[in-house]
Design goal:
The chain is an alpha/beta fold. The chain has 15 helices and 14 strands. The chain is 38% helix and 21% strand. β3, α3 and β4 form a beta-alpha-beta unit. α1 crosses α6, α10 runs parallel beside α11 and α13 packs across α14.
């Protein structure tokens, strides 16, 4: 899968963020001829076009390619302006393309990411048989993203890695979870996929420890899996097969139906904690609902969503609230992790709110297991060359 952007979009941080988030590979074109070369073949792709890219020749290239392979087109331009400009004919021709999204000239990450997902979703029509085949042929793979935590001094140590599943599709290449998890969920296979990830992660912990890397692992759980109150016993049995203790794993869950103390979600999570697993509240955004039930939740850690960090950096009131939430979590015996940390400014901000852990591209993206050694050290400094 390719995201193809013109040179005019090269400097967009939103573009590079979406490429990372969605496991795209990035290719550029600067001429109509180059676009035509990139559209040859049957590879599925998403194109980002600015107003400058909308030429009659470019539109004809896309129309010709429409019969060969599915693709999506994201237009970063104003529709009204285009319809009344010298691009009006090219604009009218866009209506012949079936998979198109408009995001406007001043797009941000959220709008671009949503448009890319919509385009990709229209292209990916996965069947039950394809997913079953992926299990049978070992096409699912696991990558690991390091999580670092502050020690008693000023050092940041790698103590954990989050296990993130990818699908090495025989035709589409490596695709991210957003592109296949909805189908996995719809076909009732989420439990099977999570158990696969858990087994792979347990085996990886054993391998790392044999190499002298004392790491723990984080695994994501879908809300649908928390309706099963026997989940704790079953997962404990899996990790014990590998001789790994339950406390080596943290399950990350999103807030759903947690205000009700009789919720099956809460009973399932207590089942996990009873066996010694740790629990993390993922995608915490400091919503009123989150704060209202904060002290009742059976969590060991909260993970602050990147959007909450961004808002707190921009607004003093939100910053004070976030600092207060961090303090409350600490008083309740919870650690606090920041996710989506990608720049030095955010890193410095985390010091001011006394955040315990962080994760993001500033440290490392999700990588193959053997690369984890590069970001692991018993005395790891945040500016150590191998971390970059």
């Amino acid at each position: 899968m390719l995201l193809i952007a013109s040179e005019a979009s090269r400097g967009s941080k939103a573009l590079t963020d979406v490429v990372r988030e969605m496991s795209f590979s990035l290719r550029y074109f600067s001429t109509d001829q180059k676009l035509a070369e990139l559209m040859v073949g049957e590879s599925r792709r998403v194109l980002l076009l600015t107003e400058d890219d909308l030429t009659d020749t470019a539109i004809k290239t896309l129309q010709a390619a429409d019969d060969r392979a599915p693709f999506g087109v994201i237009i970063a331009a104003d529709r009204l302006s285009l319809s009344s400009s010298d691009k009006a004919r090219a604009y009218a021709s866009l209506g012949e393309l079936s998979n198109i999204e408009w995001i406007g000239a001043g797009f941000n990450f959220e709008r671009l990411a949503a448009a890319a997902r919509h385009c990709r979703r229209r292209m990916l029509k996965l069947s039950r048989r394809e997913i079953e085949s992926a299990f049978d042929n070992f096409e699912f793979v696991v990558r690991y993203q390091p999580k670092v935590e502050r020690n008693a001094g000023t050092e940041w140590l790698t103590r954990e890695a989050e296990a993130l599943v990818r699908w090495r599709h025989p035709e589409l290449g490596l695709i991210g979870p957003l592109e296949f998890l909805p189908e996995v969920e719809a076909f009732g296979m989420m439990g099977q996929l999570t158990e696969f990830v858990l087994r792979k992660a347990a085996a990886q912990l054993v391998s790392w420890r044999e190499q002298g890397l004392a790491l723990n692992c984080c695994v994501n759980l879908a809300p649908s899996q928390l309706t099963d109150e026997s989940i704790g016993e079953r997962y404990a049995g899996i990790v014990k097969e590998f001789g790994v203790e339950c406390a080596s794993f943290t399950f990350e869950v999103v807030e759903e139906d947690l205000a009700n103390t009789d919720s099956p979600h809460l009973r399932a999570m207590r089942s996990l904690r009873k066996r010694g697993f740790r629990l993390c509240l993922d995608d915490f955004r400091i919503a009123a609902a989150s704060l209202g039930t904060f002290e009742q939740l059976p969590f060991d850690e909260i993970k602050i969503h990147a959007s909450a960090l961004k808002l707190a950096r921009q607004n003093s009131t939100r910053r004070a609230v976030l600092a207060a939430v961090t303090g409350l979590a600490h008083n309740l015996g919870m650690s606090v992790c920041a996710e989506g940390v990608e720049d030095q400014e955010t890193f410095e901000f985390l010091k001011t709110i006394k955040c315990d852990k962080m994760q993001g591209f500033l440290i490392s993206e999700a990588v193959l297991p053997h690369i984890i050694r590069r970001v692991y050290s018993s005395r790891e400094q945040r500016n150590e060359e191998d971390v970059a």
